């Protein structure tokens, strides 16, 4: 079944949607993106994703081709046209297609940004990984220094996923100066003595929208949250570990670099937070 995708103001069958070979997203990874999950046909945490997108654009001095309030309508229309009940909407904005390849940014008055959105159908709620937990390896964090900007430079995270796959694992946690930053496409947490520990915000990690929601729900449920760096050794000695993202929600981690975490089964804190996140998201979906 062919999807309907959104490209620069038009809703088109996916095989008719085209972007120039001179697009700076293609030539230079000069673009930003967002992934918003969809549950029961509703957008989850849309406001958070739209605000982070605005921030990413601002940090890169990139113009938005659409007004922010139009974005919600485009997302909704795409969900409707593709009859999407569960999965996600991917959005990407790049600095457009100038007449030729050049390192300097083109004049936005001459070269408008390119915007593309498409839907991805996926089971998010009934996920085998959420039931069994995932295994991760640790790798050096070799990404650039502005990980708080959600750019489409995803080569190293892709390489990290491949390293994990080769090691018989599901994902990789990245380590810089001895401390865990985050997963290749998710934020990383450990639980020790009932305390939830996760890397503090900064330019070293992406400010996850799911992270913000989970920490808010955890605090509302009287759980103690510590936002600070931790090592792989501390994580291996934790009672529980888990990841969060728009595509995984809360997913338990049961093994890190071959060491079993806790009982080797998804822990109660991760499972409880997943349940709360699903309940609250369903109520607040738009
Ligand atoms: N990734 N950290 C990184 C490096 C990420 O790429 C992501 C999201 C997150 C979690 O952010 P959020 O909770 O806002 O989804 C953290 C998306 C899902 C992706 O690249 O597909």
Give the arrangement of secondary structure elements.
Blueprint (H helix, E strand, L loop, with lengths): L3 E4 L2 E4 L10 H5 L2 E9 L2 E2 L2 H14 L8 H14 L5 E8 L19 E8 L6 H5 L1 E7 L14 H12 L4 E6 L2 E5 L3 E6 L2 E4 L10 H12 L3 E4 L4 H5 L3 E6 L3 E8 L2 E2 L7 H17 L2
Parallel strand pairs: 7-8, 7-14, 11-12
Antiparallel strand pairs: 1-2, 1-6, 3-4, 3-5, 5-6, 8-9, 10-11, 10-13, 13-14, 14-15
The protein binds N-(5'-phosphopyridoxyl)-D-alanine.
Short description:
The chain contains 8 helices and 15 strands. With 286 residues, it is an alpha+beta fold. The two termini are 26 Å apart.
Describe this protein with a few key phrases:
single chain; alpha+beta; D-amino Acid Aminotransferase, Chain A, domain 1; D-amino Acid Aminotransferase, Chain A, domain 2; 2 domains; 9-stranded mixed β-sheet
Strand content: 25-35%
User: How many angstroms separate the termini?
Assistant: 26 Å
- CATH level 1 name of the largest domain: Alpha Beta
**Strand segment count:** 15
Describe this structure in words.
- Helices cover 29% and strands 29% of the residues.
- The chain has two domains: 118 residues, D-amino Acid Aminotransferase, Chain A, domain 1 (2-Layer Sandwich); 157 residues, D-amino Acid Aminotransferase, subunit A, domain 2 (D-amino Acid Aminotransferase, Chain A, domain 2).
- It has eight helices and 15 strands.
- The protein is globular and about 55 Å long.
- With 286 residues, it is of the alpha+beta class.
- Bound molecules: N-(5'-phosphopyridoxyl)-D-alanine.
- N-(5'-phosphopyridoxyl)-D-alanine binds next to α6 and β13.
